[in-house]
């Protein structure tokens, strides 16, 4: 699975990564900027997502991590749907509609995974060797809520999930699942509304990765409230 990640990027580089200059109309500058440097993004928190806007051009919008289906009655369901398995995403009721119409890319500079050794779990920071950002395949949803102005949650909630696949040879010594990472033409095809969902299965297979490394780090990252560069510090 992918249960924690980080993003450390400038707005200009983020827009360049996805070939867009637009920010989603539902985001505000302060919220957008607050998502650009995050060391420990956890479920239910917001991060930036790239998706196609109304004019079918890529836009960047902060969304809540943990997909909340449009039919959900309880927002807590999102905490259980931070990942979607690529093997079953086309059939699962919670994901199949988004898989057909609302695919997205989730930028990251790295993600965290824990390797179990006996009763202990050692956290690893998995990132590209040059620390450049990459894009994970995702799905997004829009939940429209009814109710008066005094409700705690906003009337509209945008949320996302990250697709995972069986671990490749790089990840299998650490964990049996990994996020689906897309780039170049594959990333563009994933976003394209004209591509039928049935033609996407080849994109979300457990391909081998190049230029990635897994660095053992301290337990600082274990606590989601820790939001500092120390989350990335390698074990001495």
Automatic annotation (TrEMBL):
Pfam family, one: SRAP
EC number: 3.4.-.-
InterPro entries for the chain: SRAP, SRAP-like
Record GO terms (molecular function): lyase activity; peptidase activity; single-stranded DNA binding
Keyword Calcium: no
Keywords (A to Z) from UniProt: Covalent protein-DNA linkage, DNA damage, DNA-binding, Hydrolase, Lyase, Protease
A biological process from GO: proteolysis
Family designation: Belongs to the SOS response-associated peptidase family.
Entry-linked PANTHER family: ABASIC SITE PROCESSING PROTEIN HMCES, DC12-RELATED
Official protein name in the record: Abasic site processing protein
Organism of origin: Thalassoglobus neptunius
Gene from which the chain derives: yedK
């Amino acid at each position: 699975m992918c249960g924690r990640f980080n993003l450390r990027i400038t707005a200009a580089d983020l827009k360049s990564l996805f070939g867009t200059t637009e920010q989603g109309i539902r985001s505000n500058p302060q919220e957008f900027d607050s998502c650009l440097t995050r060391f420990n993004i956890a479920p239910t928190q917001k991060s930036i997502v790239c998706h196609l806007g109304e004019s079918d051009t890529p836009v960047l919008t902060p969304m809540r991590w943990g997909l909340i289906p449009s039919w959900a009655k309880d927002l807590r369901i999102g905490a259980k749907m931070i990942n979607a398995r690529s093997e079953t995403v086309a059939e699962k009721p919670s994901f199949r509609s988004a898989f057909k119409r609302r695919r997205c890319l989730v930028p990251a500079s790295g993600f965290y995974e824990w390797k179990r050794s006996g009763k202990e779990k050692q956290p690893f920071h998995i990132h590209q060797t040059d620390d450049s950002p990459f894009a994970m395949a995702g799905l997004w949803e829009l939940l429209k809520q009814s109710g008066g102005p005094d409700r705690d949650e906003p009337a509209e909630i945008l949320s996302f999930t990250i697709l995972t696949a069986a671990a490749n040879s790089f990840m299998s010594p650490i964990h049996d699942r990994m996020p689906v990472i897309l780039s170049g033409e594959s990333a563009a095809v994933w976003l394209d509304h004209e591509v039928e969902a049935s033609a996407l299965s080849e994109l979300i297979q457990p391909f081998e990765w190049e230029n990635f490394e897994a660095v053992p780090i301290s337990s600082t990252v274990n606590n989601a409230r820790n939001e500092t560069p120390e989350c990335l510090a390698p074990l001495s």
